[in-house]
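Bug #77: duplicate submission created two jobs. Keeping one. Sequence:
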Amino acid sequence: MTRRLSKLYTMRITGRVLLIGFFCATLAFAAEGPLEATLARMDQAAASFKDLTADLSRTHHTAVINEDTVDSGTILIKQTKPHELLMRFDIAQPDPRQVAVDSRRAEMYLPKSQTVQVYEIGKYKKLADLILLLGFGTTSRELAASYTVRLASEEVVENQKVARLELTPKSEETHLKKVDLWISGANGLPVRQKLYWPGGDYDVANYTNVKTNLNLPDAAVKLEVPKNVKREYPQK
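Kept job's structure:
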């Protein structure tokens, strides 16, 4: 039981680290409508997507104590090849830290302790793939291969029209129950993501001041750490 709980905890931590605000089936939807228009905008955005910067606000809700933890900062994303994203989060409040993510691992730099925590996310590929599919450089066909997709509502978020998609994972192995994805009507990119976990916990990411295709160098999405920083491996 202890090992099972440890695995579930690590999978949730991996999901939260990956939260960003990220393979070939056909969609069985009607020919026209708001959902199809939203998916078409996502396809158009995916075709030209290279990189992105945005302001980021994240909330983690712990159901058992009914408590929210909020942090904020910036996110940088670079697509190096199809389905290959490099990401960096610079969290400014309340506890400064940096997080860099690639397809193999996530690294979190904690400046107060001069420590880098390393998470081998390749062990949780299905969960990582599901989260990395959530809107940045993702086509509708890729989304439909891993999720059942439906249009939940049309709303206004941050003074812009958005479509809220409800995504249900097709695999039960990830312990991710559901995802809500708010897609901008202007650029086909996410403005908000909400991940639902077992037991009532959830994570929400909000993206503002989004800028795309800036030709970011690889260095922009890597950690900036002092030499000889200590590395820890919490999964071991």
